[in-house]
């Protein structure tokens, strides 16, 4: 059986990807010859639609707009090997010994942004999320149509990679329910559904969009006019 150099060195390969980074042809994939399992890291900002590298910028326009190292997935921190990024960095900007720290700043004002918890759509089995690839959440759809998203704004069905000619938006999932959700209205799904409908028609002009809802609630200045324009 012929043995290639890759086969001979597969036991010592750490899967750091340094060779693939410098290969001018892009023909090297460490997963093809590395004896260690190389797992793809879901891109959290893109809702796991695509993957990211251990060294990455968390999201576009991040402040500061600088790369960070994911210690849990970096080969150096997992195996105490590699170090290719530190060796190749011309600015010597990588310090593996840095730790998290709290920094105090004096400012004139602060903005309290409490954020929100994302609903797990998998708890509502009747909608098939997680079973059918073409059932996606609104946040996933947002990233799919975004120019900075994983597909550069090209909208396709996950199952076929072709443009969806028909799309259905389901509102109030998890809201206004006495069991299995919350009893109150989210106050946002009507408006972002209207926005997504417009974005869909821009991406697929000959497509047909349907919206299933309990009530349309446009609680905001000029919101009603926007909804009527979409209709």
TrEMBL record:
Residues 4-33, 65-99 form the 4Fe-4S ferredoxin-type domain. Keywords: FAD, Flavoprotein, Iron, Iron-sulfur, Metal-binding, Oxidoreductase. GO terms for molecular function: iron-sulfur cluster binding; metal ion binding; oxidoreductase activity. InterPro entries: 4Fe4S_Fe-S-bd, 4Fe4S_Fe_S_CS, HdrA-like. Its cofactor is FAD. Belongs to the HdrA family. This is 4Fe-4S ferredoxin-type domain-containing protein. It comes from marine sediment metagenome.
């Amino acid at each position: 059986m012929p043995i290639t150099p890759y086969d001979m060195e597969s036991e010592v390969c750490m899967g750091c990807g340094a060779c693939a980074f410098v290969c001018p042809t892009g023909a090297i994939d460490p997963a093809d010859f590395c004896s260690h399992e190389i797992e793809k890291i879901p891109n959290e900002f893109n809702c796991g639609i695509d993957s990211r590298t251990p060294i990455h910028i968390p999201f576009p326009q991040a402040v500061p707009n600088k790369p960070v190292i994911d210690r849990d997935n970096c080969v150096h921190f997992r195996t105490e090997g590699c170090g290719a990024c530190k060796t190749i960095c011309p600015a010597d900007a990588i310090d593996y010994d840095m730790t998290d720290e709290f920094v105090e700043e004096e400012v004139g004002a602060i903005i309290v942004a409490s954020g929100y918890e994302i609903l797990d759509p998998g708890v509502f089995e009747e909608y098939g999320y997680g079973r059918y690839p073409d059932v996606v959440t609104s946040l996933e759809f947002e990233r799919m149509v975004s120019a900075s998203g994983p597909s550069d704004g090209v909208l396709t069905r996950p199952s076929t990679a072709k443009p969806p000619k028909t799309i259905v938006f389901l509102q109030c999932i998890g809201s206004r329910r006495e069991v299995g959700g919350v009893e109150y209205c989210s106050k946002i799904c009507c408006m972002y559904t209207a926005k997504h409908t417009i974005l869909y028609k821009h991406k697929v002009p000959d497509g047909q969009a349907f919206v299933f809802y309990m009530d349309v609630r446009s609680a905001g200045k000029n919101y009603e006019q926007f909804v009527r324009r979409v209709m």
